[in-house]
Amino acid sequence: MTTQETCVERDQANRLIGLLRQEIPGRDVIILDGAMGTMLQSYGLMPGECPELWNLSHPQHVMDIHRAYIRAGADIIETNTFGGNRIKLAGYGLSERAFELNYQGVRLAKEAARGTPVLVAASMGPTGLLMEPFGEMDFDMAYEAFKEQAMAFREAGADLISIETMSALGEAKAAVMAAREATGLPVICHMTFEHGGRTLMGTNALTAVTVLQALGAAAVGANCSTGPAGMVGIIREMAEAATVPISAEPNAGLPEFHDGKTLYHESPEEMARHARMLVEAGACIIGGCCGTTPEHISAIRRQVSTILGHARKATAGPCRMPHPFSRQTPLRLAGRGRTVTVDDPLNLPVLGDEIDSWRNPEVAGSLKENDMDAISHKAREQVARGANILLVRVDIPGRDDVDSMRRVVNAIQQVVDVPLVLVSRSPRAVEAGLKAFWGRAFVHVPGAPGYMTGRDNAGNVDLRGMAGDLEHANVYEEIRSVARRFGALVDPEGAIEAFISEALLREATTGRP
Questions:
Q1: C-beta separation of 329 from 243 below 8 A
Q2: Contacts of 286 (CB under 8 A, 6+ apart)
Q3: What is the DSSP letter of 326?
Q4: Among 60, 59, 62, which residue's Cα sits nearest to residue 37?
Q5: How confident is the model at residue 7, as a pLDDT?
């Protein structure tokens, strides 16, 4: 992986580490707080009542919970704003009070932490709606809702933002981008996983890490999910692939339902034992989710202090927070649920290049007729024949390539979960495709500076490219800026450039992906 490609994620990770070391000196593992919702229930929050409204109606109870977690040893407390986006608040008729509720949530946490070294992380959860292509919410709708929430966090003085309980990678993508771009604060993003090691929408741990750290998340991790024991393998998989710190916030065991109530039975001592396993798996930020209490956090604090104390004695030196983001990692692209390493010479990816309006008359015809079923069928066919990356080019004369790109990307990722290569000379079309795509794409700009444009006299692939005219160079720079914003790859990257270029030049042959 090149230095250029990792600069964003390393910068964000280093900013978070710098903040933690400056504000919480001497901590080798950072302790987050525990649950807010189940604690509010213990204070009298009723089913169907809006938790965020308690920031205005019961501020003392909210601050009491924060202070209890601070006394328990939390280094970071999270605000009572998990469901504070205007889409979620609409269910309570409170959309127009989104800014106020989020602002007040941060102010209460700041007041509770006043005079302590404890940091305040503004909590941001999902909207409750399904993202395209599985629902009606598009990227812009999600982005604007999260942006409004994040701006309230910034105005109220939050130290960082913790995105939690995301099961749709596309929604997590919108949340990370909105939080980063609206505030400049470090962002931790947690996904929630099912028993099979994937989110409800099919994303595995490796894919989550690949996409989220490329978007500039300062740390990634898991919360809620299957309880602490079931989370260990997920955290280990994340840590092995990450270039940023790893965070874990498990529930207090698996939920059980009795008499209309949700109960969590894992004791503080059991949680603490599992916290040790999570640290050993690679987490350097540990907290709790549903069902956890100040007693759970206190036990985790004691356990973590004990294992770090033993580590210091064993090494006769300081035990440092892990810095995996300083290492080189493979170059990866990701779809909704599958990640492909593209620079492994022993296992080169297979590119399916049939969804190309320039080279495939059938695709051009399908686009003219808005026949997305035919596009979906072609995507499934190529993956069934072994392709693990699909190329998409949709521009045809007299057709809105922006709308075509969005519709085609949605049609493809509804039926397959592989990475995409988006081919276009239109910045707006590239942006539309990257908004729709949940994963990490590669963007190819035909004729751009540095890209291969033909073969040399001996018939070999010519990787020298050509400079092109000024107009093409400006378009390329605009597309590169768009791609970087969405965590996509666009610059020539050695093996991937050769792989993509060769595939684009191939003549169609029967039976190939």
A1: yes
A2: 29, 30, 31, 32, 247, 248, 249, 275, 278, 279, 300, 304
A3: G
A4: 62
A5: 58
Cα–Cα distance measured from residue 228 to residue 482, given in angstroms and rounded to the nearest whole number: 38
Name which of 432, 433, 434, 238 is nearest 339 in CA terms: 238
The pLDDT, as a whole number, for residue 510 is 30
**C-alpha radius of gyration, the chain, whole number:** 24
Contact (Cβ atoms closer than 8 angstroms) between residue 197 and residue 234: yes
DSSP-assigned beta bridge partners for residue 78: 121
157 vs 319, more confident: 157
- Of 174, 145, 20, the C-alpha closest to 81 is 145
Q: Structure tokens of 247?
A: 């965070």
Reported as a single tens digit per residue, the pLDDT across 240-252 is 999 899 999 998 8
The count of other CB atoms within 10 Å of the CB of residue 497 is 21
**Would you state the structure tokens that stand for residue 175, as one six-digit string?**
């949340």
- Of the chain, the end-to-end C-alpha distance in Å amounts to 27
Q: What is the pLDDT of residues 461-478, one digit of tens each?
A: 333 333 445 677 788 889
**Tokens read off for 380:** 């499934």
Query: What does the alpha-carbon distance between residue 501 and residue 461 come to, in Å, rounded to a whole number?
Result: 8
Triad 327, 387, 196: Cα angle to 5°:
65
Cβ neighbours for 251, distance < 8 A, ≥ 6 positions apart: 224, 225, 226, 227, 228, 264, 266, 288, 289, 290, 291, 292
Best CA proximity match to 351, nearest among 393, 394, 386, 395? 386
On the question of a cis peptide bond just before residue 397, with omega within 30 degrees of 0, the verdict is no
| Gap between the Cα atoms of 394 and 400, Å rounded | 9
The pTM for the full model equals 0.89
